[in-house]
Specification:
Number of helices: 9
Structural class: alpha+beta
Mean pLDDT: 82
Largest sheet: 4 strands, antiparallel
Bound molecules: zinc ion
Shape: elongated
Order of helices and strands: HHHEEEHHHEHHH
Strand content: 5-15%
């Protein structure tokens, strides 16, 4: 029977957890002797992959798309094994080294298109109406009031068609377990520093805050004017009837 698109890596013998872990340790050690420090992603063997709102929302977003489903579980297990020996988040892309059956790790590259300006403007304007929440947000917590703005179909989390995936392994599937492990690794990084989310989505946090505050001040001033108009109206009323 012909193998389906998604079964391609079944033809390889699955490496044992012990083998994967010793390969990973060796990779980290070798890099160190060359003066390079790798930053492995560490996750507990049990329990949730991510604990913060940001990390959890990232995982939920991945799992929203059924196309990815079959590969995601395997990637999660792979990550827990300690195979993501390095992961670096930059503007619009993630580079990771994921240990597999070979001695040298596979190179994973994930590209995410930046949030377009229209969407960003809309989100900044919604945030400016919830300005107290922004302070909480920058302290690394995720205020409930902003969840609907960020999540949702038109929020800041990427859709599959905004994500491109690449791995140097011989698996033909678009999402091999290395890519999938790296995708979950991103969630762990968001636990450590939620501002990395903005970095990845190509959003300048300083600008985001400045514009949001500006919008908010403008709207406050508009309200002040409305109020003073009403006061004058009251005076007029007294003059007329007083
Ligand atoms: Zn791969």
């Amino acid at each position: 029977m012909a193998k389906s698109y998604y079964d391609t890596d079944q033809i390889y013998e699955q490496p044992s957890v012990y083998k994967l872990q010793s390969n990973a340790d060796e990779t980290i050690r070798k890099a160190r002797t060359r003066g390079k420090t790798l930053h492995p992603v560490k996750v507990a063997a049990r329990g949730p992959i991510a604990r913060s709102w940001w990390g959890k929302a990232w995982c939920d977003n991945l799992e929203r798309y059924a196309d990815y489903d079959s590969r995601l579980e395997r990637g999660k297990r792979y990550l827990r094994t300690g195979t993501v020996v390095d992961l670096d988040i930059q503007k619009g892309h993630v580079k990771a080294k994921v240990q597999g059956r070979r001695k040298s790790p596979y190179n994973v590259e994930i590209r995410i298109s930046p949030v377009n300006e229209d969407k960003l403007q809309r989100i900044m304007s919604l945030c400016s109406k919830r300005i107290e929440s922004l302070d909480t947000l920058l302290k690394g917590k995720f205020p409930k009031e902003l969840q609907e703005v960020f999540l949702g179909d038109d929020g800041l989390f990427p859709t599959p068609w905004e994500i491109s995936l690449n791995c140097s392994c011989p698996d033909w599937a678009i999402m091999c377990k290395h890519v999938s492990a790296a995708l979950y690794g991103i969630a762990v990084r968001f636990d450590e520093d939620p501002l990395l989310f903005f970095e990845l989505r190509g959003i300048d946090v300083d600008r985001f805050v400045d514009v949001t505050l500006e919008n908010s001040v403008e709207s406050m001033l508009r309200n002040v004017n409305v109020k003073s108009d009403r006061i004058i109206a009251d005076k007029d009323w007294k003059r007329i009837f007083g």
